Amino acid sequence: MLPSPGGLGAQQSVADALFQDWKAGDRQAAAQVATDAVVGRLFGMAWDSADTATGCTQTPASTVICSYAYPDGTLQFYVDGDAGSYRVDVLGTQPY
Fold first, then answer.
1. Which residues have a Cβ under 8 Å from the Cβ of 65 and sit 6 or more positions away?
2. Model's pTM, two decimal places?
3. What string of pLDDT tens digits covers the 96 residues of the chain?
4. Which of 26, 74, 85, 93 gives the lowest tally of CB atoms within 10 Å of its CB?
5. In whole angstroms, what is the distance from residue 62 CA to residue 65 CA?
6. For 1-96, where are the alpha helices, taking DSSP H only?
7. By C-alpha distance, which of 81, 80, 82 is closest to 91?
């Protein structure tokens, strides 16, 4: 995994937890770190062993976007909130 610029460790941890929960098929755990809409959409997608983390960046509006490459494109987890209450509230996809 690539290091996150700007000390985004807490937000990246939330995104990574969601990714691992998806990989493990654990919707209940995923619901602890993401909105219901994100969990529903993500678990409607098939996980692939080729999926890998590519790092996180922070937008000017303080949203952190963590990206994960998969065979057909990139997943983007948008992490918002305050320290101690970060959640993935948007799931974006970008096809190659």
1. 56, 57, 58, 59, 76, 77, 78, 79, 92
2. 0.85
3. 333 444 578 999 999 999 999 999 999 999 999 999 999 999 998 888 778 889 999 988 889 999 999 888 899 999 998 877 899 999 999 887
4. 85
5. 9
6. 9-24, 27-30, 36-43
7. 80
Q: Where exactly are the structural domains of the chain?
A: 9-95
Please report where in the chains the tokens 């303080």 appear, as a residue: 62
> Encoding tokens for residue 41?
């959409």
Q: Name beta bridge partners: 24.
A: none
Nearest alpha-carbon partner for 19 in 30, 28, 11, 10 = 30
